[in-house]
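Input:
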Amino acid sequence: MTRILIKSQLLQFFSSSFLDKKSGKRKSQISTIIINALTVFTGIMAINAGMLKISKELILPLHEYHLEWLYLLMISFLAIIVGTMISIFSTQEVVFAPKDNDLLLALPVPVRSIIASRLSYIYIIGGTISTLIMIPGLIIYYFNVQISVKSIVASVSLVVIVSILVLMFATIGGWACAAFISSNSNKNKKLTNAIMTFGSLAVYYYLFVKITEIFGQVMDNAGGLGEKVQSSNQLIYLIGRAISGDIGLLIIIWIVVIAVAMFLFIIFEKKYLGYITRQNAREAKAFDVGQIKAKSLTTALLFKEFKRYLSCGNYILNCSFGTVFMMVLSVFMLFEGNDIFKLIELMIDSEINYVPILNISLICIMISLNTITAPSISLEGRNLWILKSLPVSEWTIIKNKIKLHYIITIVPVLLFDVELLVLAKLDLYVSVMTILITMLYPLFTAGLGLFINLMKPKLNWTNESAVTRLNMGIIAAMVIGGAIPVIIMMGSIKIIYSYQIENATKPLMISFLLLETFAVAGMLVLLKTVGVKKLRKIY
Amino acid sequence: MLQIERLTKEYGGKVAVKDLSIHISPGELYGFIGHNGAGKTTTIKSCCGIIDFDEGEIKIDGISVRDNPIECKKKIAYIPDNPDLYEYMTGIQFLDFISDIFGVDKQTRSERIIKYADMFGITDSLSELLSGYSHGMKQKLAIISAWVHEPKLIIMDEPFVGLDPKAAFTLKEMMREHCNNGGSIFFSTHVLDVAEKLCDKVAIIIKGNLVKCGTVEDVKGDSSLESVFLEMEGSND
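Output:
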């Protein structure tokens, strides 16, 4: 029974990669291989590139003092934090609020089988992330230590143990979030969900900054720190030894991890049924005529899009990276902005002012991290009949999806723009051009994401996370949207540097603006023609 | 009000509806009868502009659904067989959304919402999220959302499924009243007894082909609608 449920849960996870949406049949082998290879490659490249750099910097001072065990602990810690943070909201939605709970509860299926199938989904998400972080760390590790059978056994064990710990923490975290959101004292569950999502994003970036700080301190005081940990924190040292290849200690760790995991599973099994059945209870809330509110057609459609966006934690979490990045960076720049610009000026050491080009590129890269439109057609799911039966043109539907993306993106863009312009002390022309260029770019990325989704919508999902997790469409929108400013920035710097053009910034900026205007116009025309036709045919 | 002329729709080479023609006049309550997979939902969705069709023509109040879908949709309301509504909205937010799209002013919508919500007994639940609604409650809300903008033509796919007996009775009253006021209704149903008692005209579709249509009296003759339907089903097997 458990195997059947796990298979069905995993089929849901992989269905977009292996099955053709229309026919429901297996995709041709070549297309399957290409799609999967691209997905895996993009994911691995994105995470590994950063991790290889961190690992290389981290291991050098630790290797010098023979503290490789501390290096492994730190890499594992990072993997657990990132894996857990990314899986928490999936846990909340997949484990605690899936659409097919009622169906499964009505079947003669043991609760532990339902839980096992749900957790298998979380294990794949969290385990994939943690493993992708661990592998580059371990590659760097083996460049610096001698390879032995014991160390390999310990490393493989470490990867598996970390993935289990991620599952455990994600389950506890997701449970806590779900319990808080659905508690009786919580009057506005959807708003709480949205605030918690944004809050967790802020915590996520704070932790990332904090971890970088801790890693920096460790690198600066490696020798002293190693001795201190060895002498005062015996437990950490023993764990470090175990994961470095002390098989005896490793077996003890395995026993402890399995015991804790089983203990948690038993508690979870006892509480789960009570929790998900209690959740179905409806709150009694009085209705009065004052709640009836008239809006214009456009406002009504935009209101609907906002309600959709704020109702899904995973949607906010996976598709609003740019907004959060810009907000966090805005706060950071308020305190550290002057020093950063002084540092940039020193680093560039040139007569030519690259700062405006860097500013624009940086903001456009962050804009591309917002992919709100990328799953928005898929998110209509079984509700698509409503929009299709209403007297609303496909173009109006498309425009409102773009509007939502634009509003969520433009507010932090303008804040960030103003802050950068003040800090970088740019002249009026450059300031106006920066604002215009960065205000136009979200229109392009919004259109791009929507167009990708219109080409490959997935409407037959049972859980929103199936379309809001980092899938091919979202990654493609992010990568293409991010690659364009990078290419433009590199090209511009190359032109300015090669030809030593001192006053090239201004003509380059007007060229960007013109190019961007054409790109945005082209994207909108594409959506108004091909996109509208495609939306008309989707059902 | 609704003219379906020689409608044909295929799904990957498999014919769902073939050469189907139906005419519905203002004030008519028209029942559409057929077994599961006969082509009822395909016909209904084609009329509402939800799916495209291969051949034929559909006109609502003289306007082609294919050429001017928006104008057609302004005149109709559609209720699907499975009311999947926006679960992230409350009942009143959903009704407001539909009223906003059709431009129903606040005063009028308030009166209609209160009237119909009271009739179906869901007024108290209007401020709750739709995710907490039962199937029947969602069905009632979908019905109210159709009536709130008083369309000329209401198209319903199995509207009685999931409704309690009182709500089913209320709906039948509402349907009759709508047609008496000059509106038209085209609905599919499995409940032949309801079709026989409620409808002015019926059409029977079997395996995508319209086999009989006309007034209830013409179709059933001296027999019952059930007998006629079963007989036709048998002869088509």
